[in-house]
Amino acid sequence: MNTAERTAEEGRPLPEDLLVVAERAEQRAGKGQLTIYLGYAAGVGKTYAMLENALSRRSDGLDIAIGYVETHGRAETDALAARLEVIPPISVDYQGLMLREPDLDAILKRHPQIVLIDELAHTDAPGSRHAKRYQDIEEILHAGISVYTTVNIQHIESQNDIVAQITGIRVAETVPDTFFYDADEIRLMDIPPEELRIRLRAGKVYVRDMAEQAVRRFFSVENLLALRQIALRFMAQVTDRQMLTRMRARAIPGPWPAGERLLVGIRPGPTADQMVRAAYRLADRFRADWIVISIGTEEEQNLTDQERRWLNDAMETARSLGGRVVRYRGGDIPGELIRYARQHNVTMIMLGKPRGLDIFYSPVYRTMVRSKGIDIFLYEPKAAVSIPIHRQLPQFVSPNLIVSAVLITLVTIANYFLRNVISPSNLLIIQLIPVVAAALFFRRRTAIITAIASILVFDFAFVVPYYTLTIDDWEFFISFVGYVVIAFIISSLATRLRYLLPQIRRSEAKVEAVAVLSRDLVNVAHRQEIFDTLYRHMKQFSEGAFAIFTPGVGGLFMSVGDPDYPLTQKERMIAQWAFENCRTAGRGTETLPTGVGHYVPMRAFAVTFGVLAFAFKNPDEVLTPENKDILQTMAYLGALALEQVE
Question: Carries keyword Disulfide bond (predicted)?
């Protein structure tokens, strides 16, 4: 009997379930509590209910203040808000418009027990500390202040595409689902659609950014019923997650189904982001682990800037929704997908529905044919997608085939002049040169086509009877079959090596860098030696300026770093924020993204020891997800070493 079975029979929680509970408790230690008031549309009473509950809690003796509330001129809501203390918001002048934002520093300084901040999905004014309001709330929670906030269902990241399909209106401001799953309480504000429409006609629903016709379409009974159902379903998912967590932590017996695992294959395109959100919903429905994979082929190694943005945005969406991200290169997309699925016990694969004219040669069709025992889900984009006709046509002619044709022509000409000098068997060996070249340098399909073409040319020009495709000598036929077999074997091996070796080298380089850094840090005994070791390894990471900041009297100071590091007052402020909030900030993030540097806190065992700082020399360079992972690994290893010498 294994440990899991014995523990379940004894009525004790599994160790891994207790670990999850312990990790969550550690993450939430010292943080404020988050209460979200969720509605299926504007006007259901989220802000009113939030204010009522706040007044009730104040009567219990709690210190409560308003950080930001939009009453939209409703008399009843104004009356409630007037009974609470208000921390004045700040005004930001943006292109002639005065934008009001919560005064984050004032809220942190005032430090009430509970602060009310409306409109969770709001995008902060340019130049603000964070890009999104939910990030402001995360900082407030981290400071130990509880938060009440409001949001509508269409602003939840995973629900965005569904709501847009129903209403015809897509909102640009969304909040990651993980933010909601970390909430202490979500209260659904639910009223019948007919009552909401009555409120709309009475002028009690604020719809500033929607034209009258859009209002009538959005608030139709059918739309409201659908939105209400989505909100109820989302609440059921949240409740189900909470129930499962509590049941596992208390070893409550239940019919736990075998785990599902979803693999999502995406390619650079305008619908990649939508597909990731759809995959999240599918995985959530099946309670499945999910992995987003992108396989770069030879044809896709030179992506445009727009294609890179599409791919990176999709990967960031996957991370924000809690998915695992895998990116590597390969020659045969279906083969790599199936291989990965078999190795990682994948039970479901999600792919985009093929839309080109070469549907039967598409990677999707070939994956379906080879995916025995694995369920396949095809994603259909919710919006119309225009595909150029040249991308829909089968790619029968490629530059590689043209090069192979030239090689066959040159070899055939050479054999023509040698036909009376050497034997036909030697001519056949020479004719094999284009096949071997194509197998070594091109894809399998090109190599096989080259082999067949070379066979036909040789048979036509050099095999009796001449200038026909008839074969009298069966030895030549056996040789021709060998041609194809050789081309297939060589091309398969060469393709695998050509695309896997660079990936292996990159992986080995990363592993070696981490291993060497770990070994070097083990042998140091003083803080400054750790900083010097980290700095030396960071200099091997990329071209740019590096620094390590540690706390001292009056703030952070540079323990070690490049003399030309762009340490302006703004950069000091970003580094200080990353240190105090234990979160990555600066360039390449959504927190203070206008900074020059990228700042990663060195944190281990709930203690922050300092901040790693990195700034590209070329301001146009992009900080890739791989670069971010390496810097975070370095920061964590450095923090572990510092913890040992403290």
Answer: no
